[in-house]
Every structure is written in structure tokens, then in C-alpha cells.
Amino acid sequence: MQVTVTIPDELAAQMQARGFALESYVRDLVEEKLSQQQKIAGPHEIDPEEFNASLDALTRYSHKIPALPIDAFSRESLYADHD
User: Could you tell me which of 23, 45, 46, 26 has the C-alpha nearest to residue 34?
Assistant: First the structure.
């Protein structure tokens, strides 16, 4: 597919001054935008192995989290500064 785009002269001059080829710069922008839309719009299915790997990554350093006493989660403890 070929698309004709009108680029403002100022933008073209800035890209040339930075050493960018205008065609490849615009192509990269379009590809990036399409990639972002596919990530957002696509179904969020994940295979079980990838899901388990994500869970493992979340718990990687959980053994370093100090244990809290059970009363740290009591209503009185959570709302001690509220009347």
C-alpha cells in the first residue's frame, strides 16, 4: 500500500537537519502507532505458561517481606486514626 502524505516544510527541514530520512521517520511513526493500537485493541489472552511465569516473577522476592502479626490487620489497627 502506498499513501501520500503532505508534510509541513518546517517538519521536513527539522528531520533533515537531524539526519533522519523523512520517509523512514514517517513509516516508523505509523508502525509504532499500529503496534500500540494492536496491544490495546487485541484480545488479552495469555497462555498458561506465560501466566505462571508472570506469577513467579511477582513472588520472586516475597520471601524478603517481613511477616506481620495477625492483629496488624484488625479493624482497630486499620482505623486507629479515625473516630
Answer: 26
Convert the pLDDT of each residue in 34-43 to its tens digit: 887 766 655 6
Strand, helix or coil for residue 65 = coil
Model-wide pTM > 0.70: no
The three three-digit cell numbers of residue 60, written as one number? 520472586
DSSP string for 28-56: HHHHHHHHHHHHHHS-----HHHHHHHHH
Mean pLDDT of 10-24: 82
Spatial CA neighbour of 5 closest among 27, 20, 21? 27
Q: Tell me 74's DSSP state.
A: S
